[in-house]
Known about the structure:
Largest sheet: 2 strands, parallel
Oligomer: single chain
Radius of gyration: 40 Å
Low-confidence stretches: 1-21, 55-96, 584-596, 599-683
Number of domains: 4
Number of strands: 2
Structural class: mainly alpha
Helix content: 55-70%
Strand content: under 5%
Amino acid sequence: MKRVKGTPKAAEPSDSEDDDLNPETHKKSLEKLKKIDPDFYNFLEENDENLLNFDVESENDATDNEGEDGDTVHKPAPLQGDSDESDFEDEDAKPVKGKITLKMVQQWQTELQSEGKIKLTSLTTVIKAFNAAMLRVTSEDGTSDGEYKVEGSSVFNAVIQMCVLYLPSAIKKYLGMEQSGKDPQKCKHFVKLKGPLLAYLNDLLKLLSGVTSENILTVLLKHLHQMSVYVACFSRISKLALKKLIILWSTGEETVRVLAFLCILRITRNQQANLLDLVLKAMYMTYVKNCKFVSPSTWPGINFMRRSLVEMFTLDLNVSYQHVFLYIRQLAIHLRNAIVVQKIENRQAVYNWQFINSLHLWADLLASTSNKPQLQPLIYPLVMVITNTIKLVPTHQYYPLRFHCVEILISLSKESNTFIPILPFLVEVLTSYDFNKKHKKVSMKPVDFSCILRLAKSQLMENGFKDSVIERLYALLLEYTANESHTIAFPDITLLAVIQIKQFLKVCSVSNYTKKLRQLLEKIEENSKFIEKERAKVSFALSDSKMVTAWETSIRTKGTPLLTFFENWNKVNKIQKRKKITKNDELAGELPMIKRPKISEDQPSKVKPANNGPMVLFPSDSEDESNNFKIDDEAETVPKVKKVKKKKTLKKKKLDKKVSNTDDEDHIENKDDIVQDFSVTDW
């Protein structure tokens, strides 16, 4: 062809380009490749046969793609690449992005429960579904930006139930922790699951912080307890979880408190080196904050917090020593300021429930760790703080506080097997107050000292005050002397107390008070004579501490008169305390006996609670109210049972039958809902 003038000359193909397009040269290069890199050649054979059969295809294409001028035009073959999803899933099993149905939940549930290997895709899809359920309740408009969408409370319940019941065991199976039980981070497949697991735990904590119902909280806390092994793998999640759990531990209901503590304990143990310091500090500060007010209703919660804190501090006594030393020192500083600066503000910093409950906590901790040497050096400073707290304001108004401090000292002395001179603080009450003084007011009951530290001036004028003081003195003197009744020095320890009790009996003219203390005096003297008789048989020197301890243990195993008397008295006293708590005697005295008709008596027993099936995780509600996240306990109240009359008309009976039939039909229609299968008994 002739070139038109003025047009640029087209670039003619070079020899090298012709060689590259030549099938023979291409074939030779492929043969060389087979020799040089056989693995890559095999890969091409498996994945791209078109490239290897270049000569055949090129000839066919050349004939098919001839232009009008007879020149061959090369058209590239369309690229065929599989998507990422097809590597993992078949076309039939691809998840439908969008609305989640109950059938989908059932399918995922069977995948999680399969006896074979658990797939990573099934775990990730379940976690995505849980995230969609969370976005439904946390987002303002109730929509989710993720792959899936949860609509309706039944689907929401089904997704949550599936994750709570079946996800922990499926994760264990996937990581291979069922038999080995090793750290999840050391498992082979943990890296693949790390991202989805972190997202799931974040969502779970959000759900936990938004729930108010006790039943749902217990279920979620049990689930978190199972997942706490994985929580400990992420430091940020661990801190967030512990922050929420400590709040539940201090303010929740009884079962919620216990479950929250178990979760705290498990997470802390799994990451003890990093978390123990923070947890001990946070729990102690929360304990002090929540024991400011003491009443019969708050006592059980405060006692539980104290016992669980003792357990946390015993995890590592070397770490605990620094905390305990620091906190006892703070108490001592408050006490020193109150002694030096005689002002009401400084006294109030000591004479309050937070201070007393802190003393109680440290005494319990030192008593429980008495067989280990780490914390024993702190017994002496703690005892000095308690005794000087009693001496700060030794007036009649603060007798309840004195008795609380004495109780703490008695338990510490008993458990740690340490002698603490407690009798002077008790006998001092007998000599410092005039019990013959006539009362100005009459009270029906003695004043209860268990939940008070300070008495009002009006209470000091009542006869109930003196009765309560004598009762507490009798109980504490008997308990302390019974604990020390086996010691070789018992007659010498109780000598001054016996003298002061005898002086009180001479002065006091109230027969009820003298009767009690005379009985106590007789028991103490009887025990002293018993010890003196046993001591007369001793042949070893009193300086030989080993022989003295051996002798005391033998006397304790034999039993002493005072100890047997105390044990019998304690049994009766515990029964009386239980009666006081339940108020059985009070109720019997106040309520008159009324003969009720048989219908009203039998009615509650005949009416059976409606069997609504197993407990649902989240109460199903209408679609309009489905975006409400917080669940109130009021929704769970049982409807009042109406009084049923004996005689029914025929019309009423027919109506009742119709209602029951409609109820049965509704029940059958809801049979497909997975939520109905959930029950707390599954745990």
